[in-house]
Design goal:
The chain has 288 residues and is α/β, with parallel strands linked by helices. The protein is 29% helix and 21% strand.
Length: 288
């Protein structure tokens, strides 16, 4: 198990970036940006359920052929505000607000999303196709209309937020959901320290736990994106099976390519960051 941060990823984590907090509805959205080159190509990296923008820190500056990388905290997660209810329209509007703040609506925007972030990328590309040039979806299962949801594996916490007396104690409780092991302990340690906050009641996780029981999901939504797409699956993912993969390949084969990272489970960023970067960069090179 690797406990020290590999040199290339340490360099990414230390890469110069800006963090902004902008008004959104009755709260705010936090996001990070990296200006890598002066061109018209923009990538927006979207995290998964209960995660945050720092999940992408080890990877973002190594995404090539892109002028600017933007990495938001979705509503209810990271350093963005908590809201009364959560749905994909709220998440989409938060991204559109960030795009407006950065004045990038007329540039070439590519969306790269993991888990919930992949679903959001596909949703935004479906609802606002004029804005998006391509999407990369990482282990985000698009299920068939007749899918049996009794098989569904929850990807969020199973109990409400708890409070902890010490930073050390809460960090020792950090776990991936759905549960899995990983060889890159350094990655877990890095994202864990950005996942917590001190409150008046003690240390707690940053995400709004109400989101996991109240969020309106896309179970009956008909994705209609038409831009080029790449789907990257974790070969050991608990969220994908032959039924789901066969459905996606049948439905989206005309615009979507598929790749599998055999040794990765659901959290592909953490399990195989090198292979994931290679796939992302090759596809962006094709598109840009």
């Amino acid at each position: 198990m690797k406990n020290s941060i590999p040199k290339k990823f340490k360099k990414s984590i230390e890469y110069e970036s800006k963090i902004k907090k902008i008004n959104f509805l009755d709260g705010h959205i936090s996001y990070k940006s990296f200006n890598l080159a002066n061109n018209e190509d923009i990538a927006i990296l979207i995290h998964g359920t209960g995660a945050h923008k720092h999940w992408w820190d080890p990877l973002a500056p190594q995404i090539s052929d892109i002028g600017t990388i933007i990495v938001p905290d979705l509503p209810g997660m990271g350093d963005s505000s908590h809201f009364k209810k959560y749905d994909f329209d709220l998440f989409m509007q938060s991204l559109l607000t960030v795009m407006g703040e950065e004045k990038i609506e007329n540039k070439n925007i590519y969306l790269i999303g993991h888990s919930l972030g992949g679903h959001l990328a596909a949703y935004l590309a479906s609802e606002r196709p004029e804005l998006i040039k391509g999407i990369i979806i990482i282990d985000s299962p698009i299920r068939p209309p007749d899918y049996d949801y009794s098989k569904h594996i929850n990807s969020g916490p199973l109990r409400p937020i708890k409070f902890y007396d010490s930073r050390k104690e809460i960090l020792s409780r950090f776990r991936l959901m759905p549960p899995q092991e990983t060889n890159n302990q350094w990655y877990l340690d890095y994202i864990a320290k950005y996942s917590i906050i001190m409150s008046k009641d003690g240390w707690r996780w940053k995400f709004d736990d109400r989101m996991f029981t109240s969020m309106t999901r896309l179970d009956d939504y008909g994705f209609k994106f038409s831009c080029p797409a790449l789907f990257i699956a974790g070969g050991k993912s608990l969220l994908l099976n032959d039924e789901i993969m066969n459905y996606m390949q049948d439905k989206f084969s005309s615009i979507m390519q598929f790749a599998t990272i055999n040794n990765a489970a659901h959290h592909v960023l953490i399990d195989e960051p090198d292979i994931l970067l290679d796939l992302i960069n090759k596809k962006l090179s094709d598109w840009t």
